[in-house]
């Protein structure tokens, strides 16, 4: 074949291959703060190994004397961990420089307290994520969780403090020092990991429950990814083995088919990560007896629970894994359809995990080197700007100028709806009409049971359509549909949200034709408001339009980004 033809063939082969764009990250060794427990020789040895392996600057190594037990009280957390770290960052003015706080073995990982949705028990790791925000604005609410601003962030957006007022926090740990060192070795070797590799998604049943929906969504998102094979168990036996595994997700011991002897046979590649939907999988890093079995009754509990431990997966060869110090509730677990696509496409371990976590100041522990990654990525070192100082100055100026709306937003950001409502009351006294953002804050308050009555009282005599939407939302929550209908009909409805809520009410009142008409009008005004579609599906079914209803259901179930809506489509 003539040389020209050969080169033309090569050229067309090259341009026909899909281009893989490297994801950008700002996470570099100098932007990691490594926290070491000086009372633990193991902590110091592992830290020294990590510092050398990742070339962490000496000035980024923070050595603190702290208790070596796993669980501590909140006063101890403040005294030995949070306050020293805060003082260190403030002294160096490193609030913006540091993106990740990495905790070494024997740094306590549990803060004792009330274990409940409104409790104050938490992981040390998740509590530390909000240190940036606390340094900016002051104390945040400790009872219950707070939303993670980085949750569901765009996959191509690097984590940076210009947008996110938190730190990412991971830790290196395992049953033994050898396990901790192995985590680091596998993370540094991950850059050599290449396809083909396997993603294991082990569901208990089909796409009906939230956890299984996330697994099914991950399957849809990655089923055609080059070089990736997916082993998915939907309505099949628990998976216990796999070759060249790069990602693993399951219900752990919450699956009745999980092996009681804890024996799994996965061959994890360097860089492999995972998640299990287990309430207390990070309750301890003390190694259980070799023959300890899960789910055998209270007599056989280990460290207070019969459930499986993420330490077993570290021992087996995984490079990163998330778990929970105390009961988190399923919605607080890492979500596979957000975690795996981000990591496999090039995000660092720390960025991928926190993109998949809905809440902070809660129970999560993320094990792994924050710099671990397998996909193509581009490291950027943008010049550091004083975002912290700018935010701090804006906050002080807001207090000085009595910018009540901004102050209310900040208080809600900190989890203090009482203070936010006081600022909105002052804003209402100043202005005849509230800005739209104020109603968004009121709607957020209305989602909290204790504030429903106060919000309704605040909106009394407010004829704005946004006010009616907030009131109707509260009444719908309590299935007081006639009241919600009355409120919504007190003003001409113009916005898609108001039309949708009235349609939702009509459906509850068995007027399916009006419901279909109203919800379709809302969708015409706001086509991408996917949250409207499940109610349209139900309204069409109620009206006997089953074919149209099924088309909507099929469409939604094929959209992985809508996995949170799938439970609403159950027959």
From TrEMBL:
Entry keywords, A to Z: TPR repeat
Protein name: Uncharacterized protein
KW rRNA-binding (keyword) present: no
TPR repeats: 496-529
Origin: domain of life: Bacteria
InterPro entries (alphabetical): CHP03790, TPR-like_helical_dom_sf, TPR_rpt
């Amino acid at each position: 074949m003539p040389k020209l033809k050969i080169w033309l063939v090569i050229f067309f082969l090259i341009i026909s291959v899909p281009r893989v764009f490297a994801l950008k990250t700002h996470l570099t060794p100098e932007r990691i703060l490594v926290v070491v427990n000086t009372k633990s020789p193991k902590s110091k040895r592992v830290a020294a190994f990590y510092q050398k392996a990742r070339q962490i600057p000496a000035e980024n190594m923070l050595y603190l004397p702290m208790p070596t037990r796993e669980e501590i009280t909140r006063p101890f957390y403040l005294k030995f961990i949070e306050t020293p770290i805060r003082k260190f960052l403030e002294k160096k003015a490193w609030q913006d420089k540091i993106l990740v706080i990495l905790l070494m073995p024997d740094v306590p990982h549990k803060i004792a307290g009330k274990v409940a949705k409104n409790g104050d028990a938490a992981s040390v790791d998740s509590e530390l994520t909000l240190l940036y925000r606390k340094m900016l604005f002051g104390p945040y609410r400790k009872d219950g969780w707070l939303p993670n601003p980085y949750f569901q962030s765009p996959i191509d957006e690097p984590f940076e403090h210009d947008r996110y007022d938190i730190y990412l926090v991971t830790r290196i740990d395992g049953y033994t020092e050898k396990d901790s060192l192995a985590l680091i070795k596998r993370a540094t070797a991950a850059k050599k990991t290449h396809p083909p590799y396997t993603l294991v998604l082990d569901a208990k049943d089909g796409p009906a429950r939230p956890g299984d929906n996330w697994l099914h969504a991950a399957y849809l998102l990655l089923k055609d990814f080059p070089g990736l094979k997916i082993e998915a168990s939907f309505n099949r036996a628990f998976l216990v083995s796999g070759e060249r595994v790069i990602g693993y997700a399951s219900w752990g011991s919450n699956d009745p088919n999980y092996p009681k002897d804890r024996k799994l046979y996965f061959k994890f590649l360097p860089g492999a990560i995972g998640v299990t939907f287990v309430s207390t999988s990070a309750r301890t890093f003390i190694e259980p007896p070799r023959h300890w079995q899960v789910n055998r009754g209270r007599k056989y509990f280990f460290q207070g629970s019969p459930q499986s431990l993420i330490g077993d997966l570290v021992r087996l060869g995984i490079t990163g894994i998330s778990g929970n110090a105390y009961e988190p509730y399923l919605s607080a677990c890492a979500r596979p359809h957000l975690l795996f696509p981000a990591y496999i496409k090039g995000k660092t371990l720390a960025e991928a995990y926190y993109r998949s976590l809905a809440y902070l100041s809660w129970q999560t522990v993320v094990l792994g080197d924050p710099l671990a990654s397998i996909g193509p990525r581009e490291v950027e070192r943008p010049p550091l700007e004083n975002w912290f100082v700018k935010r701090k100055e804006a906050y002080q100026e807001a207090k000085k100028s009595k910018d009540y709306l901004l102050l209310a937003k900040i208080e809600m950001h900190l989890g203090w709806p009482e203070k936010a409502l006081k600022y909105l009351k002052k804003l209402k006294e100043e202005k005849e009409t509230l800005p739209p953002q104020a109603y968004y804050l009121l709607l957020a308050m209305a989602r909290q049971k204790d504030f429903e009555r106060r919000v309704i009282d605040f909106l009394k005599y407010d004829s704005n359509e946004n006010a009616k939407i907030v009131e109707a939302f509260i009444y719908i929550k309590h299935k007081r549909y006639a009241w919600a209908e009355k409120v919504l009909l007190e003003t001409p409805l113009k916005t898609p949200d108001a039309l949708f809520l009235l349609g939702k009410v009509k459906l509850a009142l068995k007027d399916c034709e009006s419901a279909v008409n109203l919800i379709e009008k809302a969708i015409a005004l706001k086509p991408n408001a996917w949250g409207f579609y499940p109610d349209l599906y139900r309204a069409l079914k109620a009206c006997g339009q089953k074919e149209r209803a099924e088309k909507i259901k099929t469409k939604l179930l094929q959209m992985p980004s809508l996995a949170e809506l799938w439970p609403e489509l159950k027959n």
